[in-house]
Amino acid sequence: MNKNVNWLEFKFGVHQHDDVWSSLGGIYIFCGLKFQRGWCPFYIGQAASFRDRLQSHEQWLPAKKLGATHVHAMAVPNKNQRDEIEKKLIQAFKPSLNTQLK
To answer: Which residues, other chains included, contact 81 with Cβ-Cβ below 8 Å and sequence gap of 6+?
Structure first.
């Protein structure tokens, strides 16, 4: 699926959880469609490597139970930028599975 979605001013690619992930670092969102309201985020996180982090992520099954069907991902190589973007997105959307940074 080669689609992009904007979360605030940030552009994310839309992926399946079992896609082949690169070793790039970035921000990811476990989300699902909620009828005509659009995408609903259940968990927002960051990774130094999508491949290492997403394959066995502890929040994927809880997010899936809530309705997550996709992972939105955006490459952000810089750790400080990832910290800032992750915090901004969590504070804006308050995903139910994020307990920190709210």
So the answer is: none
Residue 101 lies in a domain: no
Rounded CA-CA distance 80/82 in Å is 5
Residue 86's domain comprises 4-93
Domain count of the chain?
A: 1
Query: How do residues 65-79 score in pLDDT, each as one tens digit?
Result: 999 999 999 999 999
pLDDT computed for residue 92 by the predictor: 96
Higher-scoring residue by pLDDT: 63, 36: 63
CATH number at residue 80: 3.40.1440.10
